[in-house]
Write a structure and sequence with these properties.
Structural class: mainly beta
Number of strands: 13
Low-confidence stretches: none
Distance between the termini: 78 Å
Largest sheet: 6 strands, antiparallel
Mean pLDDT: 87
Oligomer: single chain
Strand content: 25-35%
Order of helices and strands: EEEEEHEEEHEEEEEH
Length: about 240
Amino acid sequence: MFLNADIPQFYALLRKEYLYDLRAHRGEFIPCSVFGIASIPSRALMFHIMTENGAQVARLPISALVHKRTAPVLPLDVLELWDSFSYDASVICFDYLRGLKCRAFLRDRKWYEGEYAFTVDWCKSTGSEDPGDGGHKNAHILKLDNGCYAAQPNNRIFWYEPAFIAKPFAEGKRPDYKTNTHVWKCEGKSKWVTEDTDRMFYDTREPGVSRKHAGNGVKPSGNGNGHPARPAKSPPPRPRVTE
């Protein structure tokens, strides 16, 4: 979606100081319903909420939202690692991850237990689509056990799924996997072409190699202008004469 997107709605507590430009009411909370996001490049992911008294407030950072009154006050850059990468963002709750427990390694170099909520991913920008260190990063929205919410990429989260994850990494250990630097394409090289026929189940071959040499013994056909040759019409059957 462009700029704004629906998210799986959830209830939370809004830190009341965000209704007063951070000037007053610190330590106070107001119940709210969180229903959407706004994505602006080089700004933190922002949330749209409705308060219990009917005020709709837009573009709040994730640090404004908690689900426990005892939640610690963590800085925005601890809860969310990267700013939004594009105006174009998609929101999805992956069925496989729905409700899974996890632990996230935040910028303060501490591990936090939590639960998966949904995922925000971006497109149509270099930072959202290219491989390598400066390339694709998504944001999994997590409901942390300490009462805060967080937005973290894949490489900051370990997941718990007892039915499949039977060899979890030891506490405090990180794998030595390398960042992908490849762009994966199946049509990136001119190593093969399709046959020049009108067949629905067409064959493939290397350029300059006839189908005969490709192993099926049939020469490619065509009319020379890039279109399949029309099959020759058979003469109409002669009438059968009975005596």
